[in-house]
Design goal:
Blueprint: H1 2-8, H2 13-19, H3 24-33, E1 43-52, E2 58-66, E3 73-80, H4 87-98, E4 102-107, H5 124-136, E5 141-150, H6 152-158, E6 171-174, E7 185-186, E8 189-190, H7 192-204, H8 210-215, H9 217-227, H10 236-241, H11 246-253, E9 278-285, H12 289-301, E10 306-314, H13 318-336, E11 347-351, E12 356-360, E13 368-375, E14 381-382, E15 393-397, H14 421-424, E16 429-433, E17 441-455, E18 460-469, E19 475-485, E20 495-497, E21 503-508, E22 512-516, E23 521-527, E24 553-558, E25 566-572
Parallel strand pairs: 3-4, 3-5, 5-6, 9-10, 10-11
Antiparallel strand pairs: 1-2, 2-4, 7-8, 11-12, 13-14, 13-25, 15-24, 16-23, 17-21, 17-22, 17-24, 17-25, 18-19, 18-23, 20-21
Helix pairs in contact: 7-9, 7-11
Length: 577
């Protein structure tokens, strides 16, 4: 009876008046800012609804609803760690309610009034399933539940959607991945910059208002950059956030090869045939894009109705966020309100750096062909494998002066494409450059590399980057990939040792849709790291969190007839016009 009374509270006239309606002028501004049609409903909210978890902890949530609609409705569930007020109540609560949807926004465990401890990514499966069951049992829910949201609240969808019975109506896990750890560890390499800056964000969010957080972001980014120069890294959270941050401590403690701490947050092996219809938006410069495109292909292979938009965006760009809102309103309208199904091919991707959008039936595009570029002597790059017995190229990686990162898919600017001139002038970066292209080359799909190498010491990182060199010889990064080499992970299927002792490493770079224009040159960089985007390899095998000793490592890159090091690009047979 108590639950019944609580669930009915927002629909009495006095309670609705006490909670208040969204201000019409503010609502119009929000809709106009994101280029949305004006919402036709007023919204009402009831706050602080407690959802009991099986272990006795209560998670707090707010319910938004169109004020002029009677009776139970389907529920759009959004579970997030960033608080129920501030921009999220505006963007997902009142906005969606004005457009006809009932939304329940829940603060996850240990955040903003919800009980328990905040240990990111570790409890979302159990808590999410319990929340869906509770929501379905409320008198204001008609039994149908969908989920929506981006980044961490995309992860909370993956933690529930493949498992809940009966299934959800639909989901929209944007800029995220079934294997959420991909944003923090890349082929064994800790993504230091992303992890520390996110730790600084969540570490101060409970005691600092959103407006103050935004005003001080640059100061905290600068503080994080200074902190990342220090060793050991175990307590950098205190240097940046002012106190220990649970996620950071988990991140540094569970970065070693074979650590299964994060396996409970990896849903890439779930039975995808149980997934509901899925809509995804992401960007070519998002840390999750490689995993998310693999998720999309897996969903389609499992027979799940799915749609995908990939733009030229960084994680959380305004244009990306606008696309998320627009696609969500259409997706939810189709699956909850009986509105028309979105039309057109299911895949829509931006071909960088043009203004062209490609519409495809599948990803990756079946019409793409493999195009090989082989590393050669004297820094050459050619479409045919080498035929001469050229000597190997060498670089020495020094963790005391680590090879810097330049641009790329990082959570905070400077990111995306940057001028690589200073980087390519360093002695620890090998550069291989092709001849000017006779015609446009549209690379759309996966990008892979096979590199043959010998390392002085077994603890090393291999980074491969593809760049676009224009007519003025300005080199800009397009895609890259990295692999940590360690006796615990070598040899392996992607790192085999030949009879001559040479290691052949197969490396998956980030995917892309990119036009190399006629007259431009392809360039491939090979290096031993990209700091601080990736944690430096100390060369000693010490644990990531506590290591302080450093050792230089000389690496030979072989590119002769017996060792044809190369990159493999997925190229459209004819450039798009």
């Amino acid at each position: 009876m108590a639950r019944e009374a609580q669930s009915r509270r927002p629909f009495s006239g006095s309670a609705a008046a006490a909670r208040g309606y969204s201000r019409r002028a503010g609502a119009r501004v929000v809709d106009a800012f994101f280029g949305l049609e004006r919402g036709t409903h007023r919204s009402v909210v009831v706050r602080d609804l407690a959802t009991p978890m099986p272990d006795g902890v209560n998670l707090m949530g707010d319910l938004y609803r169109p004020a002029d609609v009677e009776g139970p409705l389907p529920v759009v569930l959004i579970r997030l760690p960033y608080g129920r007020n501030g921009p999220f109540k505006v963007l997902f609560g009142s906005l969606y309610a004005r457009h006809g949807f009932q939304v329940f926004i829940q603060a996850i465990r240990g955040t903003f009034g919800s009980g328990g401890q905040f240990r990111p990514f570790t409890t979302e499966h159990e808590d999410g399933l319990a929340t869906v069951e509770w929501v379905r049992d409320q008198s204001w829910c008609d039994g149908r539940v969908a989920m929506a949201g981006a980044s961490y609240f995309g992860h909370t969808q993956w933690a529930v959607a493949p498992y809940v019975d009966p299934p959800l109506e639909c989901v929209s896990p944007h800029i995220t991945a079934a294997r959420i750890g991909a944003a923090f560890y890349d082929n064994g390499v800790p993504q230091l910059q992303n992890a520390l800056q996110w730790s600084a964000q969540v570490g101060r969010q409970e005691w600092m208002s959103f407006s103050v957080q935004m005003a001080t972001t640059s100061a905290y980014v600068s503080r994080a950059r200074r902190a990342m120069q220090r060793l050991p890294v175990q307590a950098l959270d205190v240097a940046v956030a002012g106190a220990p941050v649970a996620f950071w401590r988990d991140f540094v403690a569970h970065a070693g090869p074979g650590d299964h701490f994060w396996s409970g947050s990896d849903h890439s092996g779930a039975d995808l045939s149980r997934m509901p219809p899925t809509s995804m938006v992401t960007g070519w410069w998002d840390p999750f894009v490689r995993e998310q495109l693999a998720d999309y292909s897996a969903l389609r292979a499992a027979g799940v109705p799915a749609r995908l938009v990939v733009g030229p965006w960084l994680h959380g760009d305004r244009d990306e966020f606008t696309t998320m809102l627009r696609t969500d309103l259409a997706w939810l309208g189709s699956h909850l309100n009986g509105e028309p199904t979105p039309s057109g091919p299911p895949v829509r991707i931006n071909l960088q750096p043009t203004d062209t959008w490609l519409e495809l039936e599948t990803w990756p595009p079946p019409c793409a062909q493999s195009h090989f570029e082989y590393l050669g002597g004297s820094g050459s790059l050619a479409g045919l494998p080498p035929t001469d017995p050229v000597p190997p190229s060498r670089f020495t990686y020094d963790p005391a002066d680590p090879t810097p990162s330049v641009g790329g898919p990082i959570l905070t600017p400077p990111s995306k494409q940057q001028n690589n001139a200073a980087l390519e002038g360093r002695g620890d970066v090998l550069v291989f450059t092709g001849e000017p292209l006779a015609a446009d080359l549209d690379v759309v799909g996966r990008v892979r590399a096979r590199i043959h190498l010998r390392a002085e010491h077994p603890y090393a990182d291999l980074l491969v980057r593809v760049c676009d060199v224009d007519e003025r010889q300005v080199s800009r990064n397009v895609v890259d990939g990295i692999r940590r080499l360690d006796p615990a992970t070598v040899p392996a299927p992607d790192a085999t040792i030949g009879p001559d002792g040479v290691l052949a490493v197969d490396l998956e770079l980030f995917p892309t849709a990119y036009r190399f224009r006629a007259g431009h040159r392809l360039r491939v960089q090979v290096a031993g790291g990209a700091f601080p985007r990736y944690a430096r390899n100390l060369g000693t095998g010490e644990p990531f969190g506590t290591g302080t000793a450093m050792r230089t490592n000389t690496v030979e890159i072989l590119h002769d007839t017996q060792h044809p090091s190369h990159v493999e690009l997925s190229v459209l047979a004819a450039p798009v016009r």
